[in-house]
Design a protein that fits this description.
The chain has about 325 residues and is mainly β. It has one domain: Glycosyl hydrolase domain, family 43 (Tachylectin-2, Chain A), CATH 2.115.10.20. It is about 0% helix and about 40% strand. The structure holds beta-L-arabinofuranose. Beta-L-arabinofuranose binds near residues 30, 46, 84 and 85. Beta-L-arabinofuranose binds near residues 14, 15, 46, 135 and 136.
């Protein structure tokens, strides 16, 4: 599959988190729409208000089933605005959706909603996860039986408003030779509803074993965490935001450290780039989005999938964002 396939041509969907549940691929995207809010660096134009779930059993030609609206802001008791990139995990037969949403004070928190089925609907909890902040949760069910959440995002994602899991008086975004802000990793409690511990920094090292610097904007983390495993190694992938790349780093365990490896996806048409990587029926796929169908409107993104390939040494072959 050398040419990417658009998966939901009749609507705008972005930020796909994709998992195999019961031998079927389930896609959990953000749902873009034309809300009329002008574009700015804070991401106010990403004013999403609900989620759909999609599923399919053949990536290249299969029909994409729409499970309909599975969660809406108006059903979330603590909601302010902006449902951004979510993820879903299955534990003990229940499905847990993790979503970033601004609360009534315009602060991003991460909430949980629960379902008996992968296709929802998901019932939200009364309050967000205690101690949660920022955006883009990604859940990794590890072989050790524990579930880990990766999260964080710069600029509109508000990560620069925190240090050591505490809110700052004023946002502080490092620059130049200062160390880059790290994505966060935290183990989830057995009931999947709260953090089991304090979030930790997930450190990304360069080829000399030094943590990436803030000015290294083509390699440092910006948003869109994803985790997968290949040949026993942990692959942490992410967006570099304002340089529009999907990159990856490899580590030996869920906490890292991880060492930067390279670019998975070159820039797509649009501003944001966001992805997930999943193996299905013996092939690996990169799910992502671009703004080609909307004619380049950055807030109206469309879901795509393309095959992903590894080199013999375990590195990933770079995919052109234009295919
Ligand atoms: O969709 C809103 C935000 O845009 C996501 O949370 C980010 O990762 C970026 O794709």
């Amino acid at each position: 599959m050398k040419q990417a396939r658009y998966l939901v041509p009749h609507d705008y969907m972005a930020d796909p988190s994709v998992h195999v549940f019961n031998d079927r691929l389930y896609i959990y995207p953000s749902h873009d729409w034309e809300s009329g809010i002008p574009e700015n660096d804070n991401g106010d134009h990403f004013n999403m208000r609900d989620y759909h779930v999609f599923s399919l059993d053949d990536v290249e030609h299969g029909e994409v089933a729409d499970h309909g609206v599975v969660l809406r802001t108006e059903d979330i008791p603590w909601a302010g605005r902006q449902l951004w990139d979510c993820d879903v995990a299955c534990r003990n037969g229940k499905y847990y959706m993790y979503f970033p949403l601004k609360d009534k004070n315009d602060i991003f928190r991460i909430g949980v909603a629960v379902s008996e089925k992968p296709g929802g609907p998901f019932i939200p909890r009364e309050n967000p996860i205690k101690g949660s902040y920022s955006i883009d949760p990604c859940i990794w069910p590890d072989e050790d039986g524990e579930y880990y959440m990766y999260f964080g995002g710069l600029w509109g994602g508000q990560l620069q408003r925190y240090r050591n899991n505490k809110a700052l008086e004023c946002a502080d975004l490092p620059e130049g030779d200062a160390l880059a802000l790290c994505p966060k990793v935290v183990r989830l409690r057995g009931d999947m509803l709260e953090f089991a511990t304090e979030p930790r920094d997930l450190v990304i090292l360069d080829e000399n074993g030094k943590p990436l610097k803030a000015g290294d904007t083509e390699r440092r983390f910006f948003e869109a965490s994803w985790m997968h495993q290949y040949n026993g190694k942990y692959y942490f992938s992410y967006s570099t935001g304002d340089t529009h790349l999907i990159c990856y780093a490899i580590g030996d365990n869920p906490y890292g450290p991880f060492t930067y490896q390279g670019v998975i996806l070159t820039p797509v048409v649009g501003w944001t780039t966001h992805h997930s990587i999943v193996e299905f029926k013996g092939k690996w796929y990169l799910f992502h989005h671009d703004c080609v169908p909307s004619g380049g409107k950055t807030w109206l993104r469309s879901l795509k999938v393309v095959e992903l390939e590894y080199n013999a040494d375990g590195t990933i072959k770079t995919i052109q964002g234009t295919v």
